[in-house]
Amino acid sequence: MRSRQAARSLLLDVVAVLVFVAVGRRSHGETDALAGVGVTAWPFLAGLAVGWAALLGLRLAPGSVRAGAVATAGTILVGMPLRHVVAGEGTALTFVVVATCFVTLFVLGRRVLSGWVARRLAAR
């Protein structure tokens, strides 16, 4: 059961990163669909993988708020430099802020919300 929850949590994190990339590409009028999403997403997915390796190494429950913080940190702190150095893409301050806010909201915030809902249901 725990591995199923971990897989679900990882899938939701990956979807959050892909949605972030797709929305960003669409808002900038970039149209090269799937290939373009992959090129833009890979640094952040690599950062997410680093975050997940850390949270598993720390034996954090994948659905916990702490795990969300670690996954978010990996996505941004590894993904941004990869995007800049390896992929050769820019990292304007506004992009860093928007990316950090979006990833925090959907990777960490999802866990905060689900924990709050679980506590409310348990209290009934």
Instruction: Name the overall outline.
Output: globular
Mean pLDDT: 90
Low-confidence stretches: none
Report the C-alpha radius of gyration, rounded: 15 Å
Total DSSP E strands: 0
Helix content: over 70%
- Listing every helix as H and every strand as E from the N terminus to the C terminus, the arrangement reads HHHH
General description of the model:
With 124 residues, the chain is mostly helical. Helix content is 84%, strand content 0%. α1 packs antiparallel against α4 and α2 packs across α3. The longest helix is centred in the last third of the chain and has 31 residues.
Task: Describe the structure in brief.
With 124 residues, the chain is mainly α.
What are the key terms here?
single chain, 124 residues, 4 helices
Topology:
Layout: H1 2-27, H2 33-57, H3 65-86, H4 93-123
Helix pairs in contact: 1-2, 1-4, 2-3, 3-4
